[in-house]
Amino acid sequence: MRIVIAEDDPLLREGLALLLRAESIDVVATTDDATTFLAALDEHRPDAAIVDVRMPPTHTDEGIVAAVEARRRQPELAVLVLSAYVEQAFATELLAGGSAGLGYLLKERVGRVDEFLAALDRVVAGGTAIDPEVVTQLMSRTRQDDRLERLSPRELDVLALMAEGLGNAAVAERLVVTEGAVHKHIRSIFAKLDLSPADRTDRRVAAVLRYLEDVERRR
Q1: How far apart are CA 215 and CA 90, in angstroms?
Q2: Beta bridge partners of 129
Q3: Residues 10 and 107 in one domain
Q4: What is the DSSP string of 131-198?
Q5: How many CB atoms are located within 10 Å of the residue 153 CB?
Q6: Cα-Cα end-to-end distance for the chain
Q7: CA distance 147 to 192
Q8: How far apart are CA 88 and CA 97, in angstroms?
Q9: What angle do the packed helices 132-141 and 153-163 form, to 10 degrees?
Q10: How far apart are CA 40 and CA 26, in angstroms?
Q11: Alpha carbons 120 and 164: distance in angstroms, whole number
Q12: Which end of the chain is more exposed for a tag (fewer CB within 10 A), N or C?
């Protein structure tokens, strides 16, 4: 795997590079701003990119803008965005064009090396990884939504773990239930949220994105 890192904090940037190289991942470039990140992307054509949300010059949304542009230039690029805080609007913007091969994690997750590497692997494999804290805040802020009230407490638990990017087996292990039970809960969630099997979108992520959109509309 070939990867580019865009992070303006030199300690985190170099720490990420060391961590990934120790895992035999080829870090082809490290950058500290959006402009050089996009240049490195064009030069190296990596398989994946790790991008900070806030970078120079304004430290607002340069990273998200660059990540969206990176996917426009290289649609197959896996992108894992790192943020110091839960910023749901940025998560929505990032995932609006499709969820495959995308992740949004808090920077503190990097210190939990196994979790971070597992999330990166999921994203590179074409999956999705949304930070558990983003999901937790999302759920707590949308419990009054009529559609959410259709779900049972166990279905909410399953949906939260789905949103993190976990597969059925991992959800079953976390909740100490059978995979069959998880599959049944997921079918019920999709039915209650009116997510049709005919949809070409990833229904697992579509469920979470609906909540994100609801939050933004009410702000």
Answers
A1: 12
A2: 103
A3: yes
A4: -HHHHHHHHHHSTT-HHHHTS-HHHHHHHHHHHTT--HHHHHHHHTS-HHHHHHHHHHHHHHTT--TT
A5: 7
A6: 40
A7: 7
A8: 15
A9: 140
A10: 14
A11: 12
A12: C
Contacts of 132 by beta carbon, 8 Å cutoff, 6+ apart = 160, 164
Range of the domain at 107: 2-130
pTM, two decimal places: 0.69
Do 181 and 93 share a structural domain?
no
Residues 127, 100 contacting (CB under 8 angstroms): yes
Token readout for 165 is: 């990017």
84 token code pair: 């110091």
Domain at 37, CATH number? 3.40.50.2300
Q: Residues 92, 93, 95, 96: what is their CA dihedral angle, to the nearest 10 degrees?
A: 100
14 and 70 co-located in one domain:
yes
Q: How far is CA 179 from the centre of its chain?
A: 23
Instruction: Please give the single-letter amino acid code of residue 50.
Output: I
Nearest CA to 106 out of 128, 127, 134 is that of: 134
Q: Over the stretch 204-214, which tens digit does the pLDDT of each residue have?
A: 666 666 655 55
Express each pLDDT in 187-204 by its tens digit.
898 888 877 665 544 566
Largest CA distance in the chain: 50
Question: Do residues 30 and 15 make contact, with C-beta atoms less than 8 angstroms apart?
Answer: no
Based on its alpha-carbon atoms, the radius of gyration of the chain, rounded to whole angstroms, reads 17
Of the candidates 153, 138, 123, the residue with the CA atom closest to the CA atom of residue 211? 138
